[in-house]
Amino acid sequence: MMSNNWFENLTAPVAQSPSTKKLEAPFGYIEPSTYNKKSSSTQIKPSKQSSKVDDLKSAKAWEIATGPAKQLPSTIFMNYMSGNSLQIIPITMTITLFTGVFSAISGVKKVFHGLETEKNKDNVYLAKVTFLLMQVLTLAYGIWKLNNMGVIPNKRSDWIAWEVTPSYVERLL
Q1: Which residues contact 129 (CB under 8 A, 6 or more apart)?
Q2: Interval 56-74 mean pLDDT
Q3: Which of 20, 42, 112, 171 has its CA 20 to 30 A from that of 32?
């Protein structure tokens, strides 16, 4: 009879041969028995470590604070591509812009939670102010976009009922 070698019997137990060869430790691995906890050369002193952590927290706070400024060019481009007409896509893009700004402003404490210590308190406060200013800048762009769409009432005829709406002459260049 011919043996079927094209399948494996998964119900039969697999005989595992014990490995007698010991593998080398990975590069940089220190055996726990050879590690000396009293060695001062391998440990970082608490003051240096805390100052490094404070510096890292400040750097992270500034990275978060400048994040909206980095997103603003892509936001402007997306809104430019959506157009200024009163259609569903430009209106949705503008509403999304406003909801993102308002949720970011309301969640400032949550965003910067855990980054503030006694030593970097002023630096994190400036980062929070910068974050809020970047959000206000995005909000100003959203208001400008609404004005270009004609949604903001800023003409005299928008407020007075008997005022005639100005008619614009369309010209083809």
Answers
A1: none
A2: 91
A3: 20
Instruction: Enumerate the domain spans of the chain.
Output: 67-150
Helices 121-149 and 88-106 cross at an angle (nearest 10°) of: 160
CA–CA separation, 115 and 119 (whole Å):
11
Half-sphere exposure of 3 (CA within 13 A, CB side): 3
Which own/partner pairs from 101-110 qualify as long-range (CB within 8 Å, at least 24 positions apart)? 101/135, 101/138, 101/139, 101/142, 104/68, 104/131, 104/135, 105/132, 105/135, 108/132
Q: What is the pLDDT of residue 116?
A: 84
Higher local confidence (pLDDT), 128 or 26: 128
Q: What angle do CA 48, 52, 56 make, to 5 degrees?
A: 170
- Using the predicted structure, report yes or no on whether residue 41 has a pLDDT greater than 60: no
Distance CA 79, CA 143 (A): 12
Assign 24 a pLDDT band (cuts: 50, 70, 90).
confident
